[in-house]
Each structure stands twice: as structure tokens, then as C-alpha cells.
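Lesson 9: reading folded outputs for more than one chain in a single document. The general rule is that every protein is listed as its sequence immediately followed by its C-alpha cells, and records are never interleaved. Here is the first one.
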Amino acid sequence: MENYLRDNFEVEPKRPSEEALRRWRSAVWLVKNPRRRFRMIADLAKRAEAEVDRREIQEKIRTAIYVQKAALHFIDGGKRVEHKLSEEVRQTGFGIEPDEIASIIRSRDIKGLEFHGGVEGFSRKVSVSLNDGVVSSDIPLRQKIYGFNQFVEKPSKPFLMFVWEALHDLTLNILMICAAISVGVGIATDGWPKGMYDGLGIILCIFLVVIVTAISDYKQSLQFKELDKEKKNIFIQVTRDGSRQKVSIFDLVVGDIVHLSIGDQVPADGLFISGYSLSIDESSLSGESETVNIDKERPFLLSGTKVQDGSGKMLVASVGTRTEWGRLMVTLSEGGEDETPLQVKLNGVATIIGKIGLAFSVLTFLVLTTRFLVVKALHNEITKWSISDALNLLNFFSIAVTILVVAVPEGLPLAVILSLAFAMKKLMNDKALVRHLSACETMGSASCICTDKTGTLTTNHMEVTKVWICGEAIVIKSNDSGNVLKSSIPERLMSTLLQSIFQNTSSEVVKGKDGDTNILGTPTERALLEFGLLLGGDLNIHWKESKIVKVEPFNSVKKKMSVLVAVPGDGLRAFCKGASEIILDMCDKIVNEVGESVPLSGEQRKSITDVINSFACEALRTICLAFKDIEDSSNNVDNIPDDNYTLIAVVGIKDPVRPGVKEAVQTCLAAGIIVRMVTGDNINTAKAIAKECGILTDNGVAIEGQDFRSKSPQEMKEIIPKLQVMARSLPLDKHKLVTLLRSEFKEVVAVTGDGSNDAPALHEADIGLAMGIAGTEVAKENADVVIMDDNFRTIVKVAKWGRAVYINIQKFVQFQLTVNIVALMLNFVSACFSGSAPLTTVQLLWVNMIMDTLGALALATEPPNDGMMKRPPIGRNFNFITRAMWRNIIGQSIYQLAVLAVLEFDGKHLLNLNDSDASSVLETFIFNTFVFCQVFNEINSREMEKINVFRGMFKSWVFMIVMVSTVCFQIIIVEFLGNFADTVPLSWELWLASILIGAVSLLIAIVLKCIPVGSSNHTSTVKHHDGYEPLPNGPDLA
């Protein structure tokens, strides 16, 4: 079976090939209800059509760009046709139509923009101040005139549509026809109402199956709809009512002032107001890979594009479906999401079992029919046929079809969706947003987590605690108002220090809604600004002192930020800050004790390096501040200098480790998951934090990215097993490490990332984990899971839920296969020997619902327990149905078949049934015993290896509700619905006997679990690096 599944039903968790997707679709056979089974499967035909539409739109956008470039040479602004304002727009006080705005933006009509007075004139036309932004009370009016920033989405399916889909089950349709015929013939032979009971019972049971199925599917769809909306909900920094605030992308309106920085997604079409070095990646919209520089001459920003570099402010001009991105989003939503590996694999299992079930179904019908004909021939009645004979044949056909209903485990692939939907909802409550279904599955197999340091392992609440300046290291305390530092350095140097802090920053000091002063920016920037404010500096005063000429924003490759400012007079001054070693290498001078710039000697350089290392060994993030005066401002200032700077100070910033991180790391190690820190920080800082978190062990290796890059492929292979910390790494180093871990070491790798440059590593990893707070939109878009609170403990929760999904599906498969085998064999053997099936159509339909929808609800939604994180991860190539599962399935099946066979052939004697209704009582008792065997086997399936199957059972409220509901409804069927279900009421002794026979399966399970089984083949062994005790590996232990 495993080889067949591996050959035909194997797909990659991320970016599966078109060939693999088509291969498993063609291999699927005998699907009872394609509309339901494939509801959460990607529609490849629609996807292909959507791709064609997307390319057409991109081509139109590219054409518009080229036409606009050519037309600029010929357009005469004086001959422009003026659009007439509609009465509705005029009455609201606006001076431009929404369609005219969309036309100007779409065609990048610079002349049209100038016709309206440029950006300033445009802002007057949409009644907004470029300083204070939109007035909140105007938002409903703006949404009415210019529209909402939402795209056209498919409406949610109503509940009745799910009922309709459930009714498309071919076997249920056949049974409904049989039931209708049975009612008609029954009434004709047995009269009203007796003749309708059999057929009506089938119809009522089908109705119950359909309703329960539709409710389950409908609830899943609502969960996915809610999660999908959350995935698209981006929060944007805007200026409204004169203050900075965060708003949802859905609440954005025309006239909003949006603040953009590296990695942001442009949330709507707009116009550039101001900014520095703003470059935009428009490849998602136009397909062109070349970045576009945005400035006053090229002010058009298009929705859906990404900020590649720089920062700026934008005036929102068009929103929603009036943007090109809005039109493109309609095509992007077509085709659905790729199916997960478990979905595909279980479709394969369902196909194999379905083929076996069909064979048994046909054989059962042939055996029953043959026996019936032989009996008629022996009684010389072969030529005499009555309506009763026709009803018998119809009943045989109904039983055969019902066996097929039970045999084809339609619920297997759907149980994966149910389990994933449940897990994703719970993870959302635990601050993890799963963007791709397969990630939840794959995370359960993760054998390695490459994590960032800042904000993930640490709190990201930074504070300057030490400063080295004028040859002296000074401890900074927040309650001393910087008096110690002020008294230690000359006034001239203090002025330069404050300039380097306030003028070389991407942060802003703004007033919030409550009137309080807030610092907006990265935690490092905030810490530096708070330090500057502590020293008595004022951001606004320093900004007014000099004009900023050019800004080079910080990114993870350069690891520095530079700014060029015009100082009073005719000179320029460059300020630079960033990674301490990099900035120190750029300096050839230093500020001495009296505030003068003097040459930096080799001895001083070594001394400063020692200071940096001492700060880093205290787990402080070290930042160097430097400046350079440029006398001749007539020189080209397109590039800020990278050498001959004067060092001002070394700043040590404290970022404490998050509470609970050490315990979370220990949980990972116990689960066989290696944790590696990959950070851009100083190696000594990284090592100090890694030791505090329990990541770096005595035998582990810590290395800098530069050293890692310089090693040969063979050296990399030798060092990676022991690699625990990589410091001063570039995004390419992270990508290289992930690639080698996956390709050479066959590890299942999870990677965290927050910056735009982390996108390749997030894309390459098996599971990309983006940070929800510090992460850019580019990082989130390339991630599979967004960690909303940036906390490493949340990553461990994702791993735990991933394991729960995998194990829950295994539990359900074990349970369902047991029921399949017993139901098939029982009916077939009974048909061969007695000429009748012990379980009627209604009874089999009820059993099918127990093992399908209700079984999936009970077993596929169990929450994780701590024991799941004390087992090793599952390898890449695994046998989904393990030897332990086969042992349990075969053992329980043998027990149930033996008991039911004894009851079928000698039950009357064993139970001392002598009354006239002995046959009906025995058949009811067999049915009741069979159901209770499944109830207790469902409890058994909660643990495939451990003996204590009751642990945590009473905390799983879904499981308990299903169990209680099953038992209650079984009592109702047996005691009160006898006419419909072919049952008779049982005495309390027989009820007790049924329950006890079912309960014996608990003892059988204990005996079975004591039988050792070898590990399955095709499991990949993860090699653990020295310093961690290697765990036994294999899916049997997972």
C-alpha cells in the first residue's frame, strides 16, 4: 500500500508540481461525492484561466506604462478635456470624480495631475490637509463617494448549499431510490403504515447523515472564511486628525496620509508627498522586475506593490476595485489553495479501500442473490415470483450499496480539513495565523528551527544601559536624567551626539490620539531616541537646525543607516550608525575628551574593539555613532561617503530574554527539534543570549556569517551538524543554511524572519514563520505562518498543534479502518453462510455516520498534550499507516469479528433466547454490540502506543459530546425507533452484555500494545549535532 501511495499520491507541502497534482487526481477512483470530497482541492482548470486573466491585466499595465512614457512627449496640457463633476460629488464639497482619479493614476498621467495643481492641488480637491490628514467624521462620506478599500470576493455559501452538496452522494441517491421503491412496494403488500417503515427508515437516516455532514462542512467554511479575512487584514500607519495611528487596510479612504517604509505593501493607489530614496517593486502588478524610483517627478504609487527601499508619505487617491490591484485580486482568488500532503495521501487510502469495498459489495450482492435463487430452485419456485421476492432482491441491492457507503471512507480526506480548521482556529487564539493549510501539517514534522534573536527570543523592549564616549564607559540609568553623562563630556560633543541621534533616525516623535507623545519606529531606534530625550534633546529643534539632503535607510545587508544634512553655512555633514564593527572600520578619527576630532590609532582601535566585545558579552546590542564633515558641498552627493568618519560613541542597548523562552527551547530539544539562532547581531551578544536561552551548549559551534560564507561545501557539511549560532549573518547566509539543511541533511526546517531580505529563506524553508509585530508585509507574504506576538513560545505551540493534527488523523484512520474491515467481513461472511446480512441498511448508515462524520469530529479535533513534545519528529519519507496502527487494526478486527461471528451463528443458545422474537432480539443485540465495540474502539484509538487511553479524555469536550451523543442516539434507535431501524427493545441484561463485550476491547488494546513491532521503513533519520542527546526516530513513536 505504501509503495502505491508513494508512487501515485505524493506531493510536496510547498509549491507542488503541476504533474504531481494531476497524477493523484487521475489515480483517484470511486468517489461517492466529488463536490464534497474535492471542495477544498485546487481547481487546476480555474487556476489556469485565472493565470491567463492575470497576465492579460499585467500586460495592460505594462502597455499603459510604455504608452504614458511615449505620450509625455506629445501631450499638450492646454487641450485637456475637463471632466464634469456629478451633482453628488459637488454637494459633498469634493472637486474631482473618483473615476477621473483612477484614470489619472492608472495611466500615470502627469499632465492630468498638474492640471489639478499637483499633489497639493489634488489634496485640496479631495478636501484634506497634507499635515493633519483626514478628519475621522468625514470617513463615511468619503467611503460613499470614493468607495471602500475592499475587493470583490465570492459570497459565502449558505447552509442550504452544503445540504445540496451532501445530497450529491451517488450511493445515497441510489439508496433514496431504493427506499422510495421499498415504500411503494411495501405499502402495496403490507398496507399503511407498516409497509412504509423500512423505506422511510432509510430516508430518515439519509436525511440525518446529510444534515450532520452539512453542519460540519458549513462550520468549517465559516472558520476558513474568518481566517482568510484575517490573512488579508494589514494594518497601516496613517495620519488622521493630526495624529499618527494604525488603521486596518479595509478602513483606508481616499485622502488618507499613509506612511511607508521598507517591506511595506502599498495599500492603495496614491501620490508621493515626501520621502527619501523611495523605490518600489512593481513586479507583483506589472510583472517587471525592475524597481521604480518614486519622487516628485514620478509620484504615482500603485496598490499591491512593495517598498523595496527608503521611506515616504503617500496621499491615497483610489481604493478597492478602482485600483489595478483590486482587479488583479479577483483573479488571484480563483482556483483555490493547493491541497496538503495528508489530504492527497488519504485520498489514496480512500481509493484503495474503496476498490476493496466495491469488490466486497458486488460479491455480497452476488452471494445473497445466488443463495436466494438456489433456495427458490430447491423449492421448485424458480418460476414463481411475487412482490415479496422483488423486495428481497431490492433489499439485497440496498445492503450491497450500503456496504459500499461504509466501505468507501469518504471522510478520510475530509477529516484532514476538519482537523486543520480546528487547529488553525485554536492557533489563532494562541497568536499564530496560519496562512497556508499545509504549514500546520508540516510543522508537526519540523526537526529544526532557525530563529532570529531580536524580538523572538528577546522582548524587543530595548533600552540604552551603557555608553562608551571620550574613552570612558558610563552606565545609564533611566532615573538619573542623563546627569552623569552630561557632566562627563564637553558641551560641543554633547551637541554632536544629539545631532547624530536625532538627525540620523527613521523614527518619529508624534502625538497619539490621547495627546501623549509616542516614539514610532524600530525598537533600536526608539531606544536611541529615548536616550536622546533623556539627555535633553528635542527632535523638532534638531530637525529645524539643518536640512536633510539624502538618507540611506538601514537594511540587513549594509547593517548601517546614513544621512547627509546641510549644516549652517555652505557645508554638509554625514552621520552614520549601525553594527559596531562595520562603523568602526569606516572611522579613521575619534572625538577626544575635549570634543575635538583626532586621528584614531591602532591601539585605540583595539581598545574600542575590546569595549564592544565587553558590552556584547553582557548581552548588550552594540551600536556605533559616527560623523563626517564634507567641506566641498559642490561634489556629487548622490552617495553618502563610506569612509574617513569620526567615531562619536559606542552605545550598549539591553534587550532582555523573553520569559519562558528557555523552557520553550528545552521543550523543543525534548521533542527532537534542534534550535539554531541566526542573527545579525555581534557574535558575543548572540552567544550570551543563546547561552541564556539554552540554545548554545558546550560542544556547539557559534560562527559569524562571513566565516560561514567563506567555507567550502565540504567544510559546511562538517560544521552544520554542530552549528547552533550564526551571528552577523546576511539574509543570503540564512538562505544557504536552510537550503543545505533541507537538501543535504534531509531536515524539515522552520525559519523565522521579519525583514524583506528574509523572504528568500522564508520561501525556501519547509515552514516560513514571519513576525507579526516586527515583520514587514513582504516577509508575511512569503511566510506560511505569521507569529502575531513575535514570541518563540508561540512557535512551539505551532509545532505542538502540527503534531496533534498528524497524530489525530492517524487515530481516525486507525479507527475507521477497523470499522471498515469488521463491517465488510461481517456482512460478507454472514451473506455466504446464512444468506442474509446481520446489519440492515439503516443500521449500516448509522454505523457509517459514527465512523465518518462523528468519528472525525471526536478524534480529529483532540487538543495536543505535553506528551506529544516528548517524541521525535517524523521524517520526510514516512509510512503514514504504521506497523503499530496495523497491529491495533488487525487485533481489534479479529476480536470484533470473532465475537460477532459467535453471536451470529450461536447467539440464541449463548443468550438463552427461546421466545418467538428471538431472531429479532439477536439481530438487535448484534447491532448494539457492534456499535458499542466501535464506541470503545474510538476510546482505544485516542492512544496508539500508550496504555492509558483515558488521559485528557474528559478535557476534550468535543470528544465527550460525540461519545454521549452516540450512546444516547443508539438508545433511541434500539428502544424507540424499532419500526424504522428493524430493532426491538432489549432487556437491561442484554444492554449490559453489549456494553461489556464492547468494553473488553479496552483489555484487548492493552494486550496488543504489549506486542512489540519493528519500526517502519522509509523513515528519514535526523542527525543531531553534538551537545544534544539524540532521540530515537520513526513515526511509530510519534
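And here is the second record, again sequence then C-alpha cells.
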Amino acid sequence: MAASPALASAVLGALLALAAPELTPIHRAGYCAFYDECGRNPEVNVSLVSSNVPCLYNRPAHLATGPLLQLLRSVCPELVRGDNDTRVCCTVRQLTALQVSVALSGTVLARCPSCSRNFANLYCNNICSPDQSLFTNVTRMVNRTTVLGVQQEAVVEYQCFYSQRYADAAFNSCKDVRLPATGGYAIDTMCGIYGARLCTTQRWLDFQGDKNNGLAPLQIDFQLVPNGTQPGDGIEPLDERVWGCSEALSADQQPCSCQDCAESCPAVPAPPDPAPPFRLGAVDGALVICVLLFGFFALVFLTALMCRRKKKKKKAAPAPREGCAVRLGTYSHRFLADVFRRWGTLVARHPVPVLVVAAVVAVGLSVGMMTLQLTTDPVELWSAPGSQARQEKAFYDEHFGPFLRTCQVIVTARDQRPGATYNSVVLGAKNFSGVLSAEVLEALLELQDQLTGASVWMEEEGREVTLKDVCYAPLNPSEPSLADCCINSVTQYFQNNRTHLAMEATQTVGKETGTVDWHDHLIYCVNSPLSFKDITTLELSCMAEYGGPVFPYIALGGYPGEWYTQAEALIVTYSLNNFPRSDPRNKWVLSWEQRFLEVVRDFQRNHSQNLSVSFMAERSLEDEINRTTGEDIPVFAVSYLVVFAYIALALGEYTAWRRVLVESKVTLALGGIAVVLGAVFASMGFLALLGLPSSLIILEVVPFLVLAVGADNIFIFVQEYQQSQREPGETREQHIGRVLAQVAPSMLLCSISEVICFLLGALSSMPAVRTFALTASVAIAFDFLLQMSGFVALLALDARRQEVLLFLFFSFAGLYLTLHVTVGLDQEIAMPEDSYMLQYFSDMNQYLPVGVPTYFVTTSGYNFSSTEGTNAICSSAGCDDNSLTQMIQYATRFPNVSYLAIPATSWVDDFLDWLNPTGRCCRIHLFGNLSGQFCPSTSNDISCLLGQCLDTTRRPTVEEFERFLPWFLHDLPTLQCAKGGLGAYDTAVSMDANGTIMASRFMAYQRPLRTSQEYTAALRAARALAENITGTLRQVPGTDPDFRVFPYTVTYVYYEQYLTVVGEGLFTLALCLVPTFLVSFVLLGMDLRSSIATLITITMILLDTVGIMALWDIPYNAVALINLVAAVGISVEFVSHLTCAFAHSTKPTRVERAAEATVTMGSKVVAGVAMTNLPGIVVLAFAKAQLIQIFFFRLNLIITLAGLAHGLVFLPVLLSYMGPSPQATTGDSKGSAGPDTGLALGNPCFEGSVRQRC
């Protein structure tokens, strides 16, 4: 290690020998290397500031007096030694230019006083230090002659020697300083091609000394001397005092904040990771519990079975006396049977009038569909108006306007397009992907030219609408031109200009000369997107045509790390204004988006050989859902036709093939379909008259549900009538009345259960679920009424014309699988299989490197203008450690938990920097016609020279805050003042007429989110963070107790439902099960055992259905919940008829009663429920929409098969064990009971023929 200083000294000595030492022969304390100004640098063609260079001057420093000393105290206070002994190597002109330069950097660095002071000191020492010659060695100068003929030696390049300690300390104090407007680092703008990630001390200083950066007036070669090393030849490296970023400059100042200085950060414990899966040892805990539960209930069942067998061996006990419940059940059933018998006979005698009345009522109510409002907006469908997300969306829209609309194109190269290595004379060798080629960039410019020129004719307004009429123009919102439109694209690094893209120039770097072109400019801009001028001889700006920066993570995708030139995707994003639906301009933007889609489709088709193009417009999602719905209407129509054909054939009694057309019940089948459609249309018309909107999902689900319920009742009624023989002396009308008396009670039981079930389901907070449940309940009620009237009349007219343990295992397996069902609905599922959006979603998930912006919104009731209020929001020096922006920044350190990737932009921080008196952002005209008014940073009016808004760096008073904030929000950012708020913040603060802040927002960015589970988790994490921030800000004096902070992004309103959909689903399904049990209990004559059996079976159907959902990749969401609610209704049909038949069977044993109920009623359930569902469900497998395939084909198939298996296999076995005790049929008088008296067995309706049942 001892050889290192010697080696470094030798290298530096060689550099000095090469560097024309005669230009600075004296290196001594008190001597200058240059002094005063010698005009503009002839080697700098384009400069954003003055490029005046100093004159060669290797003589003693000058005494600073008068205005020079006064200005020195302000700009370089560390160089002031006293009133009479302060010497400097600069003039007032130089110091004034230095003041301007320091002000430029100050607007970016002032939020961290230590960094700002250290950075200013670098240039103060370089330009004004009295010991300048000690660390400065002029290496190149040019001779010039003034207009007066004076010969001058102008310095155009020099070496500057810093100790490694000094340079590193200055760099470390600045490397973490943030840019609140971008969420990035200030060093990104100060390190050229390297950006913050690759920036080092040497690279940082090299950029400052690069004459091509648009800011440096001459070339400076910074030499960092290792500590303890002397370059020789009298040179001593500069090694001044440097303030660490955690140090305060003085007792009345604050150190840099945590956001700008890691050393100032308190210890922030990492938030806990998401809870790991529940495990017992190495085994899934849920699986162990389910196995134990199965074992326990199996043991209970087997033990009860053994005890029952032992009991049977004993002498049968005498039959208990009939209790009140039995007598009440018998009476209620007799009453219902008598009512339905009389009603059926009456209808059969007057079928035509009844049909006419039923038709008139159904058609009359159906007319209400003319006022039906069909809801297609996903927000209105799935988010409750009173939900937190909807309220927050309404608040956001009220104060900031609707979220911007987005049109986006993602371009990738086909596999055959290889990448290439580009050797830059300036920047070295870089790998470029196949998509980053001149050919592709030219094609992208062609596309953007077409889109810029795209227009649509609006017939109603009689005008043409172009992009400028609908685009978001942040820097010129009032009268935008096409150039003002916010378009983010890689070609914006060339201002969407073909001439800029095609530019080439010759450049010499050291001894190497080469050509620079678009490759060099692109490399520079992706690493320094905020630059107004690159460091090549192209001298192009990196700013977009509309005046804002284009960040590489917005315009490029699919790159490894931060190697942007290896990006696999080019992303073009058009931001459009989002107008309310009631605004006529909403049609403008929708029409332009349609034109956008047409242009991009043409581009995709024309470049399909070498480019893969995916795209979307804001309207695309709703368009594609509506398109697939329209295209799948024929599939639903075929489904209904198949069901109709089955009903027509299944209702007949056939004696020969040749009599199929004669004996088929086409009339009854048509009548059954008419009853179902009449019920559906009448219910929708009735609810429409009440002002309740409908939706496409209701049109798709409710008819199937009502058809399943209605067809079951039709089959039971018709087949019972066909199997029943007319008794001697009984008329046809009486026969129909008697059959109706036998079957109507069970039909009533099912219908009442389902109606109440769906009415309770309407308590759901989700609009789509609530509307579906209300429509289904009314439709089923109308269906029952029409069956009892119109269909009975049709039947009269037509008659005139012609095992347990296995299922227990399945249930607990279903319970285990239920815990593994995915919750959510990915956007891809909502699209048809042939949708162009699927490719877009795939590319978005693969290539987009950053997620959507997330705003943290403050409500009214907070005093931003007080010092305490300001400090609790901002993140610069003097701000609270737990301020709003600081807490968001903490969260971005743990993106796996917070889902935030980029810290929040902060108008408060930039407002404070804008007020900083060292800059020229906030100035006031002191006299003249504009006295007291705002003076822009670009103005050189003499009335603004000393008109800084604040006299010192401090927090503004309440009056100053309220006066200057509107100026800041509408100040156009310029090179002289990059902190102007127009574009970045003018819409971020909402104020009333009195200037009171009613709302404000702070924008952060999420990390890329791929699935609905991640979107939901991100919402949950953001709300938790906002609640913590709210709690902190409410402690600020003067804060309203109702003040709060909430997170908002455009996706929250869609994904909020998944925070509660599981609990709400369990609650809704439980509510549906309660009336099923209670109605069964009442209508079966207080038969507790049969009611419990019904409840158990339906619950097991639901458990197994949800379990199979996990196996068949069916996620759980609101659409699935609608189907599960419908599943309860269908399960009632599978279960209740058979339970009712069992309860009123007269067979002597439970097994015989179960067998009779299965044989006689089971066939009707199969024909009326399962077979009317299955043909229609199978047809839905051919639908284009994945949503229909998954949630209507797969899920309804599961529901039907699970209901069929449980209703016809499990339920009879369960009833044979736990059903009510059978009546002993001894052949004596009515109502007599044997030892095993059952319920409702004294009713003559249930005596005699096996066919007589409820």
C-alpha cells in the first residue's frame, strides 16, 4: 500500500508535464490562475447560460471591497476573511455570473442546505479563491482581440486538483438529494449519461466540467488526488471544509432531511412480510384440520349408526302421542292442499280468461322495459355508490377532474430481428436491441405523424375534432397546439423530428475522432432525461416536443436492470383529457380514440412482418366486453332453443316413433318457455318502472335460473298429471285441481325459499349482485304466479287436446379446496379469446417496468400555510421525519410490502424551493406599472433585480404562503427556474374562491402489478399507509378532526370489492340458507330433521362447488358470487322436492321412504332441473367470451352436477338415517299412527296411492 501514493504522484506529474505548465508557472498561495472575463468561448456553439471565459492571469489576488465584497458575502461567504483582508481572483462580473449559476443549481439542491453549500463552494473556490493557483493549472488558452483592439488571452481549458476526500465528501452530500417533481434524484441531471445509479465522484465532476453540457463555459479537467499525495510542481489539491448532509450549516439552520440524506434517517424497521401459509410442522395446517374434522364426524356417524343398530334389537317402544307440531303441520298441509285444489279446479274450468289475464299482466309489466336503463359501466356494476372507493373517486373527480384517459401502443421486434453493438466515440460500446433501430424509429415516427394528423368529423357539432381538442397539454392547457400534447415516446428524445433523428456530426474525444448520431443522443437522454442539451456535437435537447421530460421507464420496456438501450419494447403513450359523460366533449374523445384504434390497426397490419404491435385505448375494455356480449347472443339463443326442444320432447308420453310429433307437448313447452320469459320480462319491467337499472349479466343469468326453477315445477306438475288416473265420477277440472293440490305445496316451498333467499341477497353492497338478487326474486315470484295461473290453464287446454361417508369426505375436501380458491378477476378473463387486448395485456405484464400512478389525496381541514403544517408535509431540510412525503418515501424502501416503487412528488417541497431567495424563481416587480406583481424568472426587467419574495431562506408566513402559492402553480418551468409549478402541480391543488386549500394530491408510482391479487394487496397497503399518515397529520395544531388522507388510483374502484368479497359472499350465502331452512321448517309442519337435512345438503353442494372451482381455475369474485347465489336457488330445486316427498311418504321405514321419494320425485328432478340446465350449459362452452366460458359454462356445470349428485344420492341416504320417523301403516282409519309416527301423515292427500304426495 505504501507504493500507491508514489504511483499516484508519478501519474499526476506526467499529466502536468503534458499540460503546458508555462500557462500557470506560479503555484503559490495568494496567486490566481485566471481573472476577469475575456468574452465568449469560441469553442462552445450552443450554451444555455453565458459562456464567457476568464482571462489568463497568474498574479496575486485582488482585494475585495465595496460591491464585490458585498456580493461575495452573499454568494461565497466562506471566502470572506474580513472587511480589509479579503482577497479574490474574480471580478464583480464573474461573481455575478457565478451567482446565476449557483441559483440554477440552487433550485435543484437548495432542499438540502449542506449539499447546496458544498456545491456552491466548488465553484466559489474554482473562480474566486485567492489561492486559486495552488490547485489550478491552465492547460489551454486562445488569443482574442477586443473591439477596441486589445489583445487578450482567454482560458478555454484548465486542470483542477481536488483531494479525494474533499471531492468524495461533496459528492456524498449531494448524491441522495431528491427531485420532488419526478420522484428521482437531482444527481440524475448532473451526471450526464450515467444517471444516479452509475454516478461516481469522478463522473459527477467530469460532467460539471464538460463544455458540451450546455452549462459549463469552458472545459475543466478535474483531477482527484489520493489522500496523502502531492502532485508536485507546487500544486496542492483543494481540501476545504465540507459539510456532511446530516450536519446543519449553522445553529439556526437544519440538516438535510432523511429523504435527501441517508445519514439523517432514523432507523426504520422493515415491515413484516405477508403472513406465511398456515402450517402444522411441514404439513398444510388447513389440510390437517379438514382431515381431523372428517375423522371426527365420520366417527360420530359410525358411532350413532352402531348405537341405532343395538337399539333396533330391543323391543320397539310404543308410539308417542301426536304433538302440537304434528297436528299443526297436518292442518297447514290440509289447508294448502284444499286451497290449491279449489284454485286448480277454478282455473281449469275457465282457462281462456285466466290465460288472457295472466298475459295482460305479464305484457303490461313487461312494457316497463321501455324505460329500462342498461348499466355497462364497470364502476356502476361492481362498486357500491356508498363504498369508500366510490366516495374517494367522487372527491377526486370533483377537485381534480376525472383521471386522464390513456391510449398506448407497445412495439416489439419479431424474433428474426437481432440486436447490435454500437461503438460510441463519446460514450463507449453499448448494446442495442433489435427494436431500437433507425428503421423502427422511423416507423414509429410515421405512426405518430398519422395519429397527430388524425381527425374525426362530429356531425352534431358540425366540426372536425383533432388531437389538440382532446389531448392533455400540461404546459399550455388553455389553448393547446398539437405540439403541446403530452405524448411519451422514445422518439420524443428527438422532439418527434425526423431531421433530428437523421442528424450526424463529427466529434473528437481525446485522440479519437468519430461520428455521432441518434445512438449517442439516445444513450445520453435515457440516462439524463432532464437535460436541455446533450454532450455530443449534435447539441440536441432531451426534452419532449411538448416541453416535459420523457423518462425511460415510461417510453421503454423489457430492459435488464437500467440498461435502457437493450429494451425489448418501445412504448408510445397518448394522454387525453377525460370529460364527464354529460360533457359533449366526451363524444369527441371517444370518437378520436376510435380513430386511434383504426390507425394503429393499419400500422399493425402494414408492419406485421417485422414488428409485433399491441395497443389499447381507454374505451377498448368496454368496447370489447360489449362486442363479445353481442357476438355471444346467438350462443345464448341456441342454448335456449336446445332447452326448449328438450322440454317439448321430455314432457310427452310416447307410444311409437311415428307419433313423436303428435305426442310431444309442444304447446306446454311453448307455454313453459313463455311463462319463464314472461316472468323475467315482467320482473325487469316492474323494477325498471321503480327506477332500478339492469345489466347484461342479469339478462344472461336470470333466465337460466328461472328456467331451472320453472321447468322443474312444470315437469313435476305435468308428469304427476300424466301418472295420475282420473277417479270415478271426477271431472277433468277436478282431476287437475287434485293433482295441483298434491304438487303445489312443494312448489310453494321452493319458490318462497328462493324468493326470500334472493331478497336477502339484495342486501349486498355490490350493485350488480343487489340488482341480480332483486330481479331474480321478483322473477321467481312472477314465475310461480304465472305457473299457478297461466300454465295450469294451458294444461287444461292441452288435456282437452290429447352413499354418506363418501359425501362427507367430499365436503371436507371441498372445504380445504375452498381455502385455496383464487380471489379476483384478471382483466384478461373479461376479454374474448380473439380480442386484441389479450396481446396488449400480455405485453404490458411482460414489458412495462413501472405501475400506475398512485395519488395520496388530502381533504379539507388542514392548514398547509402554517409552519407546523408545512413541515408535516414536506421532505426537505427542516421538515418532520414523519411527514407525509417522508412516510411515503419510507414505504418505497419496501416495495414487496407497500407495492410503491417511486416516492411521491411534492408541490410543497418544490414550492419551498421556488421561494428560495438564492434563485430567481419568485420575484416581485418593485416599481413601475407592474409594481407588486409577479416577475417571471425569464424577465430581466430592472424592477425585479432585488425583488425576491423572501429576504432569507425560511418558511413563508401564512400571508406569504397564500399570496405566492397561486404564482407558483401557474409559473412555467424554464431553465432559469426549473421549479415552476405549471404542468407538474397546477392541477395538484384545489382551492376555493378565498384561496383556501380544499384538496391536494401527491403522486407516487406503484411497482408493476400483474394480477388482481397484487392490485388488491396494493390497495390494502396504500390504505394502511394513508391511515398512518392521517393519524400523524391530525396531531398538527389546527387540523380538523375529520381531515384525512386517502390513496387513489384509477384501479381502486374496481379492486376494492375484493377486500370484502369473501366476507360479503359468506354473509350473503348464509342469508340465503336461513330462509331455506325456516320455510322448509314451517311448510313441512315444523319438521326439524327434514329441514336440517335440506340445509346440510345445500351447504355441501356449495362447499363442493367452491372446492371444484379451485381445481378448475375458476376465481372467486362478484360474478362467481352471483352464480353461487343462484346455486342456492337451484339447489333448493334439487333438494326440497325430494325432502317434501320423503316427509309425506307413507312407507313404513326410512329406507323405503327414501327409495320411494328418489324413484318418483327424483326422476322429475332429473328431467326438470338437471336436463333443462345441462343442454343449455354445454352450448355455452362454445362462447367466445372467456367470462362466459368460465363463469357460466364451467361454474354452472359444476353447480348442476354437484346438485344432482347430492340431491339424488346423498340426500336420500342422509334422510334414511336422520329423516323424521315414518308412520306405521296398519291399514286402519285416517290419521292413525304407528310406533314411528311421522309428520303430516293424517292428511288424506297422502293416503293410498304412492303417487299421492306433496
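What the second record shows: The first helix runs from residue 3 to 18.
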